Every structure is written in C-alpha cells, then in structure tokens.
Amino acid sequence: MAVDNETQQASLRRTSARIQKLKAADVEKASKYKEVEENEEDYSIEKQIKRSKKKARMMTSSSGEVVELVKPEVVVEENHWEVEVVKRETERLSLGGCGDDDERSDFAKVTKTLRLFNKYYLHFVQEEEKRCNNIVAQIKEIKKNLNSKENKVNDEDLKRPSQRPDLKAITKIKDNKSVLYPQKRCGNIPGIEVGHQFFSRAEMVVIGFHHHWLSGIDYIGKSAGTDRQVKDFVKNCNDVEFPIAISIVMSGQYEDDQDNSEAVIYTGQGGNNLLGDKRQIGDQKMERGNLALKNTIEHGLPVRVTRGHQCKSSYVKKVYTYDGLYKVVKYWAENGLSGFTVYKFRLERLENQPPLTTAQVQFSRGRIPTSLSEIRGLVCEDISVGQENIPIPATNLVDDPPVAPTDLTYIRYLKISQNVKLPPPAEGCGCRGACTDSRVCACAKLNGHDFPYVSRDGGRLVEPKAVVFECGKNCKCGPDCVNRTSQKGIRYRLEVFRTPNKGWGVRSWDYIPAGAPICEYIGVLMKSEDVDTTRETNYMFDIDCLHTMKGLDGRERRIGDVQLPRHLQMNDSDAGPEFCIDADSIGNVARYINHSCQPNLFVQCVLSDHHDLKQARIVLFAADNIPPLTEFSYDYAYELDSVIGPDGVIKQLACYCGAADCRKRLF
C-alpha cells in the first residue's frame, strides 16, 4: 500500500481554508472555556489559531505574461491579472511559473512564453471566425435580395484569403519583443528537455528553439558571426566559418530522407515542391542551410534534432518532439529518386543523453491502449458507471495487491442540499440554431460583447476570465452552440491512475489543446454555514467568484471586459463565500486531480442557467497544450500555515508535485 504521508496528502489536499478557520474557532472557544474553568493563562493555542487565520484563495490560471513589476509583493501582467508573490524563509513563487523572470526556472519561462503564444493564437482564431461568420451572413443577405439571374453573385466573389492565426501570433510576440531566446544559440535550449513536445513549428519560433516556421534548417548566418552574444555560444568563434547549423526539424518533407532514430540520413534543403508529396523538382545547391550543415562537420558543433509526426489534435496536424543533440559526421551529393542532385548529411546522436521518446513510443501511441483489454493494471473499467459519455477506467500499478478507488459515489451533475434554494433562471438570448453574432447575442454582451470561446477543436476558452457567461436553458440556441462549450460533458479519454506518492491522479489518452474544458468540479452544493467542522472536510471547494472579481483576500483580480448584469449584488462579498461544493464522498473525476506548483489546468467560474455568482459552476480548463498520459494538476493555493488540526496545532504537509519551482510544502 501507499506510504502514510501519501494518505495524509490525499485526505487533506482540498480542505478549505475557510472551513479550517471554522474549526479553529471551535478550538479557540473550547480553549478559552478551559482557561476560565481551570484559571489558566496559557494562550498558546489561541495565538496559533489567530496567526493561522488567513484565507486560501480559489486558484485560477495565469498565462504568465509579466509586463511590469509594480511593487515588491505584486506582479502585474498585461491582461491585468495580479499574482501575489508569497515570501517565506526563502523567496518562492506563489504560483508555479509566475513571478519575476530572474526567480523562475527555465521550464517556467518556457511555459509562460507558450501560454502567451496560445493566448494570442486563440485571439486571432476568434478574429478569423468572426470574419468567416460575417462573410457567410453577407452571402445569405445577398442571395436573399437577388431577384434575377443577371444580379446573381457567386459565393467565390465574397471569399477572402484564409489568414494564419499562428503566424499572426508569432508576429505579435516578435513585435512585443517577447521571444524567449531571440538570440540564436548552439546546443540545448534552457527549459527544453529531450522529449519536449511542440504542437506546432510556431511554438518553436516564439521560444527561440528553431527560428524558422517553414525552413527545416536553422543556422547562424555570416552577419551574426561577429555578434558578441553569438561568441558566448560558439567556442573559438574567430576560427569558425559561418553559416553554422544549430537546429533541424524533420517533418518528412523530402523523399530521400532516412531515419532510424540514432542515426539520420538527412536530405538538404532546396529543390522541393513544398506541396506535401515530397518530390524533388530541381537540383540542390551548396548554400544557406546546406552550407551551414557542412560547416558544422569541420568544427564539430552539435545540431538540435526535432522530429515531426502526424497528430490529429494539433492544428497543423503534426506534433514535434525534441530528440536531443546530433553531430553531422559526413555529407555527399547524389542523384535523388527524382533524378535531381541532392545533398545528403549523416547525423549521429551524441551519447549520454536521455532515451529517445520518439523511437520508444511514436509520440505515445505505442503506450496508449485502444481497448480495455490492453490496459495494464486495470482495477475498474469505468468509475463513472456509465454516466459519462466516455468510460473512465482506473489503473493501479503501485499497490500490491492493487486496489480500486472505492471511496466515491460517482455523480455527473451537482447534488443540491435540501436547504439550498436555486436562483431564478436567466432570461437567455434569442439566437436561433447557434450563437454566431456577438453584436446581437445577449449572452455575448455579458462577456464584454464577445464570445468567450472559439469553435476550433470542439470549443476552447480564449483566455481565463473572472466569470464566463454561457447560454442556458432559456436561450433559444441549440446544444451545439459554441457558448455552451463547458456543458457538453467529458470529451477526452480520461484515466484515474495510482501515483507512487500522491494517491490517485488523472490523465488523458488524448492530446488536449490549451483552453479546452476538462471537467466540472462536481459534488454536493451546500451552504458554507452548514459544513460539519467536527469531521475532516476533505475535497471542499469554496465558490468565491466575487472575491476573485474584486481582488479580495490576495486573489488576483482578473475581471476584464466582463459585464455584470445590474441585478448582481457584490456588496456582501466581504462576508466570505456563501456556498461550497463538497466532493468528499459524492462527486466526479475532478475529485482525483492533484495539486502542482506548476499546474497545467486552471479553474474557471461559469454561469449558464442562472446569473448568481454565489452558485457559479466550477470548471477546470487546460492551461497548456497537454500531451497524452501527462498528469492533470491545478494549484490548490493553500496559504502556508493555514491548516489547523482538531487539536489546534498548525499542520504542515510536504508537496510532491515535482515541479521545477515547487514550493516544497502544500500547506
């Protein structure tokens, strides 16, 4: 069985700090009563309780887009989110991957840059969808008004060239000087380990890993050879002949490529028709990238090698894995399969590097089961017992004998306590079929006159908001409306699995794009005042949207263009959350998602059937592009020394998330 500290972490991990305060109050009363009765003046427990009365905030994600350090304790980001920096004995980041660039790890810097790219990318996707919707509306209007064949207009007359949101995002990041490593460099890139997966070539560009979104060979040119920064990355720079190759991306564009992982026969650049059929249409020349590869042979400089494979989940239909450093050992010219001259380069992988993930699993396909019979360590075929759209199996390769998660009665929808009165339903919008015009949709107006989602990949949230207003039961639009994205149930193949030291965890068999909804936090909706503080209040989630929106209790204020209906009252938000969700014994798969100091999910408040912020839905979204079999996590955001046991003693629990910027303590 798992170790004791694992059990402790699993049982205490979602205990609300507000509930802990109630417990502390009970202990304080008992302590004072005992003092009066015994005429003692020892107030140590009371002092401990008072010191611990700090409220833990509901955690939400950050893109990490740091713009300016405004004051010592707060980092202000371009999207107006404020991230509180917690400082203890040593300065640690309050949020994984957020804070000053000098303090964060290389991995966190990479994550921050990729989140910024995803944010820009989705904003440009949103612009493109608006453009297309407007064109469709124009076509319908013109056809409606046509009365004769002479005035007939072909649909092609209104079409426009398709825009590339990824390229526009690259341009914006470059214009803002936000490329992580703008200076080209040889060797490994800090924060990018062997096995790192890119969902597009554009991601490589914004990191500064591979500076060309189309060309397969990246190199330092002659003009950069005298740059002082380049000399830091190239030994004996005065003796080096430029250009020098620093990175190649193998995407299968050339018919003469040969690849057996440890050794590569790479076809040089040029003479390819770039149409996807890999055919050569002309002779290659010893120039540019080809010359750069040749020069690396003479100077023994390594080259980064990244391989691309098919992936339906990526918007470019490929995913790219970094496989480490290779050395170009020789080159030659020959007639290719199409009869044209091509240059061939033999690359061999350097020793003492992590194993090749591409060769092992073919981008995880080799490890992902296709049926229940292929699942190793299967202990439960479906923890949802058929309630979810897709079965959620549970596996255990840790315990001996293996056990299944049996401490939960699974439900798909919130269970309402008897004394909880649901708010009146929202009026809803009058859109027909699907909501496409944000100028007329009443729900879009509540979101700042725009839809919070894009329809790409089944619906993705453009960026985290203080609150998202979705279409509800009184809206006239159908179930496929993009503004119902979080209501469509689980759409990825999830798995609950036993971890070595964190209890149960959750992961997916599918690639998940940033902004995609994972699941809603489900349990018993109850009044906070009704929580039984005499028992362990595990898995308690405060619904505190108002505090987040007003920036109370140290929360980051994220409200942007969200427009609140006039009837929403915010004056009583200082009293604390009125409602909470208890998933201790009744809940869904969200209950098993673990904490991380560098999470890949974020929490989003969503309003759909009603507009009462006090009873908002709690939905978990992907903060990053998440590869298959990567464990899900979000930040529980405990304040240190905020958890108190029934005896009034402050409890401490080590964090085992393994993040590069781990705070070492969960609470």
From TrEMBL:
<dbReference type="GO" id="GO:0003690">
    <property type="term" value="F:double-stranded DNA binding"/>
</dbReference>
<dbReference type="InterPro" id="IPR003105">
    <property type="entry name" value="SRA_YDG"/>
</dbReference>
<dbReference type="InterPro" id="IPR003616">
    <property type="entry name" value="Post-SET_dom"/>
</dbReference>
<dbReference type="InterPro" id="IPR007728">
    <property type="entry name" value="Pre-SET_dom"/>
</dbReference>
<dbReference type="GO" id="GO:0008270">
    <property type="term" value="F:zinc ion binding"/>
</dbReference>
<keyword id="KW-0156">Chromatin regulator</keyword>
<keyword id="KW-0175">Coiled coil</keyword>
<feature type="domain" description="SET">
    <location>
        <begin position="492"/>
        <end position="637"/>
    </location>
</feature>
<dbReference type="Pfam" id="PF00856">
    <property type="entry name" value="SET"/>
</dbReference>
<keyword id="KW-0489">Methyltransferase</keyword>
<dbReference type="InterPro" id="IPR001214">
    <property type="entry name" value="SET_dom"/>
</dbReference>
<feature type="domain" description="Post-SET">
    <location>
        <begin position="651"/>
        <end position="667"/>
    </location>
</feature>
<keyword id="KW-0158">Chromosome</keyword>
<feature type="coiled-coil region">
    <location>
        <begin position="125"/>
        <end position="159"/>
    </location>
</feature>
<dbReference type="InterPro" id="IPR046341">
    <property type="entry name" value="SET_dom_sf"/>
</dbReference>
<keyword id="KW-0539">Nucleus</keyword>
<dbReference type="InterPro" id="IPR015947">
    <property type="entry name" value="PUA-like_sf"/>
</dbReference>
<keyword id="KW-0949">S-adenosyl-L-methionine</keyword>
<dbReference type="Pfam" id="PF02182">
    <property type="entry name" value="SAD_SRA"/>
</dbReference>
<feature type="domain" description="Pre-SET">
    <location>
        <begin position="427"/>
        <end position="489"/>
    </location>
</feature>
<dbReference type="GO" id="GO:0032259">
    <property type="term" value="P:methylation"/>
</dbReference>
<dbReference type="InterPro" id="IPR025794">
    <property type="entry name" value="H3-K9-MeTrfase_plant"/>
</dbReference>
<feature type="domain" description="YDG">
    <location>
        <begin position="187"/>
        <end position="349"/>
    </location>
</feature>
<keyword id="KW-0808">Transferase</keyword>
<dbReference type="Pfam" id="PF05033">
    <property type="entry name" value="Pre-SET"/>
</dbReference>
<dbReference type="GO" id="GO:0042054">
    <property type="term" value="F:histone methyltransferase activity"/>
</dbReference>
<dbReference type="GO" id="GO:0005694">
    <property type="term" value="C:chromosome"/>
</dbReference>
<dbReference type="InterPro" id="IPR036987">
    <property type="entry name" value="SRA-YDG_sf"/>
</dbReference>
<dbReference type="GO" id="GO:0005634">
    <property type="term" value="C:nucleus"/>
</dbReference>
<dbReference type="InterPro" id="IPR051357">
    <property type="entry name" value="H3K9_HMTase_SUVAR3-9"/>
</dbReference>
<protein>
    <submittedName>
        <fullName>Histone modifying enzyme</fullName>
    </submittedName>
</protein>
